[in-house]
Here is the input.
Amino acid sequence: MKKILIVDDMKVSLMMTENMLSGEYKTFCASSGPEAIEIYHQERPDMVLSDLQMPGMSGYELQKKLQSEYQEQIPFMFMTADQDEEAESKGFDNGAMDFIRKPFRPDVLLRRVANILQTVEQIEGWKRHASTDSLTGLLNKTSAETDLKEVCRQATGALMMIDLDNFKLVNDIYGHSMGDKILISFADIIRTAMRPSDLVGRLGGDEFIAFCQGMCDEAGIANKSEYINRCLLQSAKDLMGEDMMIPLGASMGCVFVPAHGTHFSELYKKVDKMLYSVKQNGKHGYRIYDEHQALSPEQLASLTHIEMILGERNQLPGAMALPLDGFQAVYRFLRRTVGIYNIPACILVFSLNPEDDETFPLLEAEDQFYQVLQTTLRKGDAVTRNGSNQFVVLLSNTGYPELGHAVERIRRNWENTPAGEALSFSYEWADLMP
Here is the structure.
């Protein structure tokens, strides 16, 4: 029920006005400006209906004081027995939404109050629409940055920039409709990771920003990062299926306010740098800004150090087995080289063919087939899994008929496994074109 504060120094008039409105609204009564201010602080009514001429503090002065204190336009309607048109004009100049002369009929008062409240709701709706991201319901970029400028000047807490890892693959493989579902789910997960007092917004695309009030320790950031990544993976599988193989995750950069500054534009640069650092060093995690961090002489980027970082750990014989995003990078690189150096390469997609009378567990068969691909192919080749029952292979420096020889080796090795006796496979292939 909407709340209305009625202010009038004439007790009879106050009681009559309350009687007219109390059937439709929750009413609060004050007989002076100071009393009205105290009630407004406690109840935050939806509008104020105030007498214009009152001893000590007039209706004009009451309106100015409340609006100055709250720094917002407060819905006011003035009532007066004065017939002076100048008083009415002054009321509107001060920002009043309506003006009614005493004595008034109950139906006229109710209609005018209803009109004011309806107008206020429309204005609030327009404000929400203008400040809200239409897809996720979070604050949009403009509103989030406007609010954050004020928050960072005054509050203590953690400013976080959060970005979806490998989101483009969702749009590429499952389509933009699924991409929107993932973004909506991701926004909900970030929202639940924060408290009602925290601020969360979408900067655009798959990038979000948040301010967590009062947070100033790494443990809290680590917990939020772990929670967001865990929930995102589960949500992605719920939406795209348990066999979803896209390495979705969330990277997070963080700065503490005021420890790392209070000026939003400077904090934004720092938190953006931390997010970039996470994206370049494994993704699916967080990094907190440290203005004192520096590389020791032993950590400086020598060629040996770089090779150690880039080198393959626990190198196995056979093809390089990669997650889908790593496989994508190799695919793009090979497409560039075939055109420049005229070196042939091809891509194959293998699928297992379950039989109606299947006697071998499919999941175990998939693992065995992946192992056969990896061990049968050469070190210069690459293999990845694309969901359930599908495997993608890149053969470097290979054209037809070498392709046929490779497939025949795979077939022989597969038929020599327990799963290969029960399941066959099919494949498609194409030359890698620049």
In short: Confidence is low (pLDDT under 50) at residues 294-300. The chain has three domains: 3-130, 141-293, 320-431. The longest helix spans residues 106-131. Residues 291 and 370 are 46 Å apart (CA to CA).
